[in-house]
Amino acid sequence: MNPVIWRVRDADSADLATISHWLRREALPATAPGEAVLVAARADDPAAHAQVTLRLVPRIGLVLPRVSFHVGCTVHAAPELALFHRQRTLQLGHDHTGCAELADIARAPRLDDRSATDALLALAHAALDRRVARSGDFGTDLVAELPGLRDADGSAPFWQGLGRHFYAGDIAAAAAEHGPGWRSHVAALLPRQTVSTAFLPEATQAAIGAVHPGARWQWAALTEIGLRDSHHVNVEDGGPVLEMPLPAPESAPSAG
Amino acid sequence: MNPDSFRLRAARPDDIDAFVRIAGASATGITTLPEDRAQLADRLNRSTQAGASSDEPSGEEIHLFVVEHDGRIVGTSGIAASAGFADRFYSFRNEMVVQSSPVLAASNRIHTLHLCHDLTGHTLLTSFYIDPEYEATLAPQLLSRARLLFIAEFAERFSDRIASESPGLADDNGRCPFWDAVGRRFFAMDYPQVERLAGGRHKRFIAELMPQAPIYVPLLPNEAQWAIGQLHPVAELPFSILEDEGFDSETYVDIFDGGPTVDARVAMLKSVKASRAAQVVAAASAAPGNGPSSWHIVANTRRDHFAAVLRHAERGTTDLALGDATCQALAVEPGDRLRVVALEGSAA
Question: What CATH number has the domain spanning B275-347?
Answer without folding.
Answer: 2.40.40.20
